[in-house]
Design brief:
This protein is 33% helix and 20% strand. The chain is an alpha/beta fold. β20 and β21 form a beta hairpin. The termini are close together. It catalyses: N(6)-dimethylallyladenosine(37) in tRNA + (sulfur carrier)-SH + AH2 + 2 S-adenosyl-L-methionine = 2-methylsulfanyl-N(6)-dimethylallyladenosine(37) in tRNA + (sulfur carrier)-H + 5'-deoxyadenosine + L-methionine + A + S-adenosyl-L-homocysteine + 2 H(+).
């Protein structure tokens, strides 16, 4: 007679490394596990299942993974029925090598088969041996999978996965595959479903969001999608990340400016201000085009906050090349920049290029770039002192809030604002208006009294400890609260 596998009482934790795409994938993994009867582990307890959702792009990705696995090995020695699963980009890249280096790992799965996780966990338990399953192409679009959302007031919505670009420093296309676009109707169905449960803000997500529509031959698809989001009643803020300068067209600028709920915020990677380095990176634009886009964005939206990504020390970068980057940064007046020191990524063309720069040269240039951008960020933030801002109250973003008696929110342009508020009345997910009184390079402060406070359904849900769970496409409606206990699967 077969014996049920008792998953209903087992607990899980998902640990995420890397980009927003990984964060959203982790919501899907949590949703899959809960749909299979697992429940989130309580803080301070050792879960029955630990899932590491890995990154292969960030520096020291391997060290972070194996450092975490080393710690989990000691936990697992005392908790014999614990299972460890490794997914994400590093799993897609390293495959069976992970089990060879860490034989206590139970499951390895890739970026193309997230939905297989519950089955692989069951198979590993039943067979008492590690399961490694890496698909070479997308098995199921992630948004077809259930998701346990991290936030009651802000949600990720994938519009595409994969990337068709060939940047020489990036391994993402080989790990995420070619770009695959969702039908606009599916995207809007997910947006409406989230809003129906009180979510106020969505971020449209893709490796290259503004090439959306390439797969089905509609170059206006992304601008049209932004405009369509403007017709979703109850949706107060729309953001997107990340666009590519090559595909950034004026119709997107027009849609941003004309659609009332699309935030005047743009994160557009520069990577380098040197045309020679951009060519070596296979970035199919040059600095003049990049600056032209910023000019047109600011002409249409003078209040736009623009942020970027920059890599310092790419192979062959000369002092003149680096100075060109400083010049473009000075001209761009970014509100913030995410800056990275180039490091070799095995499997990328740049890793084998000649003229790899010494660490001390890269470090010195990096520090000069940071100093310049800090001055610019501070100057741009100072322009906002005295201005009234609308804030979506956030949770977990103000590390010093408890000590200062402040709360934290995000302005419509994405800036972080610490404000004087009564946490017994104002909840994360609510909307407040306040006046900026002080500016620092990385945040703003509003010390005066809150000028207005609007309670929202999102705030109600935060107060009640409820978060949306989407069931996947056709998406239906999200539901709030703990998942129903799934019947235990039967082996036989």
């Amino acid at each position: 007679m077969s014996t049920p596998i008792e998953t209903a009482a087992r607990t899980y934790a998902v640990r995420t490394f890397g980009c927003q795409m990984n964060v959203h994938d982790s919501e899907r993994l949590s949703g899959l596990l809960e749909a299979s009867g697992y429940r989130p582990a309580e803080a301070g307890t050792d879960p029955d299942v630990v899932v590491l959702n890995t990154c292969a792009v960030r520096e020291n990705a391997d060290n972070k993974l194996y450092g975490n696995l080393g710690h989990l090995a000691s936990v697992k020695r005392h908790k014999k029925d614990m299972q460890i699963a490794v997914g994400g980009c590093l799993a897609q890249k390293d495959r069976g090598t992970i089990v060879e280096r860490a034989p206590w790992v139970d499951v390895v799965f890739g970026t193309h088969n997230l939905g297989a996780l519950p089955t692989l966990l069951e198979r590993a338990r039943h067979n008492a041996e590690a399961q490694v399953e890496i698909k070479e192409s997308l098995e199921t679009f992630p948004s077809a999978l259930p998701a346990r959302r991290d936030s009651a007031y802000s949600g990720w919505v994938s519009i595409s996965v994969g990337c068709n670009n060939t940047c020489t420093f990036c391994i993402v296309p080989s790990l995420r595959g070619k770009e695959t676009d969702r039908p606009p109707a599916d995207v809007l169905a997910e947006v409406r479903a989230l809003v129906a449960e009180g979510v106020l803000e969505v971020t449209l997500l893709g490796q290259n969001v503004n090439s959306y529509g390439a797969e089905f031959g509609d170059r206006s698809a992304f601008a049209n999608l932004l405009r369509a989001c403007g017709d979703v009643e109850g949706l107060e803020r729309v953001r997107f990340t990340s666009p590519h300068p090559r595909d950034f067209t004026d119709d997107v600028i027009d849609a941003m400016a004309a659609t009332s709920n699309v935030c005047h915020q743009l994160h557009m990677p520069l990577q380098s201000g040197s045309d020679a380095v951009l060519k070596a990176m296979r970035r199919s634009y040059r600095s003049e085009r990049y600056l032209g886009i910023l000019d047109r964005v600011r002409a249409a939206m003078p209040d736009a906050a623009i942020t970027t990504d920059i890599i310092v020390g790419f192979p062959g970068e000369t002092e003149a090349d680096f100075q060109a980057t400083l010049d473009v940064v000075a001209a761009s007046r970014f509100s913030a920049a995410f800056t990275f020191q180039y490091s070799q990524r095995p499997g990328t063309p740049a890793a084998t290029m000649p003229d790899q720069l010494p660490k001390q040269v890269v470090q010195e240039r990096y520090e000069r770039l940071i100093a310049l951008q800090e001055d610019i960020s501070w100057a741009e933030n100072k322009k906002l002192v005295g201005r009234d801002v609308e804030l979506l109250v956030a949770t977990g973003e103000g590390r010093k809030d408890a000590g200062t008696g402040r709360m934290t929110g995000r302005a419509r342009d994405g800036r972080l604002v610490h404000f004087a508020g009564d946490a017994s009345v104002i909840r994360p997910g609510d909307i407040v208006h306040s006046t900026i009184t002080y500016a620092a390079p990385h945040h703003l402060i509003a010390e005066g009294p809150v000028k207005s406070h609007r309670r929202t359904r999102a705030g109600d849900n935060v107060e009640a400890g409820l978060k949306p769970r989407t069931s996947g496409v056709g998406l239906g409606m999200p539901t709030l609260g703990p998942p129903p206990v799934a019947p235990a699967p039967v082996c036989g």
